[in-house]
Design brief:
Helix content: over 70%
Number of strands: 0
Radius of gyration: 21 Å
Largest sheet: none
Structural class: mainly alpha
Oligomer: single chain
């Protein structure tokens, strides 16, 4: 454990020197931090969960993937340095960032998000967070309503982040942040609301031309992680006092992805042949009418796993393994690191970040790259990126329309 902590310290020092740990606008940095918190750090204390046997080969693959993502990013930086310098943190011109037309569209998107939320609440028979057995009710009630939820979250996100760019009082902005986070939480999922706070924090830094210290960002991150664990403890079905649940889930959250990864390694190919891309087809079917399981739910049923809540999250490593075996494990982290940093450098060079929709899209795509770590690439593309692209296009077109008619 001591060696892993020292090794991680050296790696993060290197990441900060080359890419800047504060720059979550770069998907590579977001991925590496996400990978460390929700995956890698569980190796530090895996002996606490002696009932779950984690093979040494599994630990090696997790270590390999962490370094391989960074290696892919470094290869990208080496190639890109020939064309442009690296932007360690994008700072925009606040005076050009917002105008009345954009403000109107922002408020319209908040209303659209509210309408989608009300539609879901009515169909569910109330707010999920106030119902009994939140853990399972949120899964049951969202069947056939996944698109409505994703639209609501993206409308709220674009609307809120636009409002945060307005030159107005801090209490006004905090009020909107609180209201929007409450409605996003009402779906029973804690992640979108907590990451919305992260987006707000980074938009604030960028438009106000400030950079928080690593210490301050680490404190904010720790508080948000504690909130995530707290909300997860409140919705669980286990009979125990809140403090005990909080302590148990605090360590469990990073470890569960390792456990799930071990599950798929144990199951494939000894009990079932590799799927050769079939999980991608399962995810693509979610774009068709009706209620369809995602690849995580499909794997949960295929492997005969029983637990409260939704699907298994075997990570991008697990998805690569069940589809392509060890070959997938070797190349997927390298490609993820290379593509994520290349996207950031090209995007920052080619897009005018003074335009609000470009800045918002950058932080949201960065987050979705990081989500691949736990969910896999196709799940993120189908459930998140496709809806994000639709909402972004609508946001962009409405601004263009208002410019023409006024």
């Amino acid at each position: 454990m001591v060696f892993q902590i020292l090794f991680s310290g050296v790696v993060f020092y290197f990441i900060n020197k080359v890419f800047s740990l504060k720059n979550l606008f770069n998907p590579l940095v977001f991925i590496l931090i996400f990978h460390f918190i929700f995956f890698y750090v569980g190796l530090f204390y895996k002996d606490m969960y002696s009932h779950v046997k984690i093979e040494s080969f599994t630990s090696f693959l997790i270590n390999y993937s962490f370094i391989s993502i960074l290696t892919g990013g470094i290869l990208s930086r080496y190639m890109m340095q020939k064309f442009r310098p690296y932007v360690r943190f994008p700072i925009v011109n606040a005076s050009l960032l917002i105008n009345n037309k954009t403000t109107i569209v922002g408020f319209m998107f908040l209303i659209l998000g509210l309408l989608c939320t009300l539609n879901y609440i009515i169909s569910a028979g109330g707010m999920i967070i106030f119902m009994e057995d939140v853990e399972n009710t949120r899964i049951i009630t969202r069947k056939g309503k996944g698109l409505t939820i994703q639209l609501a979250i993206n409308f709220f996100t674009y609307g809120l982040l636009t409002i945060l760019m307005i030159k107005s009082s801090t209490p006004f902005k905090l009020l909107f942040l609180t209201i929007v986070c409450f409605f996003v939480l009402s779906f029973g999922n804690r992640g979108p609301a907590l990451f919305l706070m992260v987006f707000a924090l980074y938009i604030y830094q960028s438009v106000n031309k400030v950079e928080f210290s690593l210490k301050k960002i680490a404190i904010y991150g720790f508080v948000l992680f504690c909130l995530m664990v707290l909300f997860g403890s409140l919705r669980t079905n286990y009979e125990a006092d809140l403090l005990s649940l909080f302590k148990a889930r605090f360590a469990w959250r990073p470890f569960v992805n390792i456990q799930n990864f071990q599950f798929v390694i144990d199951y494939f190919p000894s009990k079932h042949d590799y799927l050769y891309g079939y999980t991608y087809i399962v995810d693509l079917l979610m774009l068709t009418p009706g209620s369809h399981p995602n690849s995580g739910t499909y794997l949960k049923d295929l492997m005969g796993l029983q637990f409260d809540g939704g699907s298994i999250t075997p990570s991008y490593l697990g998805m690569s393994y069940v589809n392509f075996g060890v070959i997938g494990l070797i190349f997927s982290p390298l490609l993820l690191g290379f593509i994520s940093n290349t996207f950031y450098e090209v995007y920052v060079a080619k897009r005018n970040l003074n335009k609000p929709y470009n800045l918002i899209l950058l932080i949201l795509i960065s987050f979705n790259f990081a989500s691949i770590v736990s969910s896999g690439i196709m799940t993120v593309l189908v459930q998140n990126i496709s809806v994000l692209a639709l909402v972004h296009f609508l946001f962009f077109m409405l601004i263009k329309l208002f410019k023409k008619i006024t």
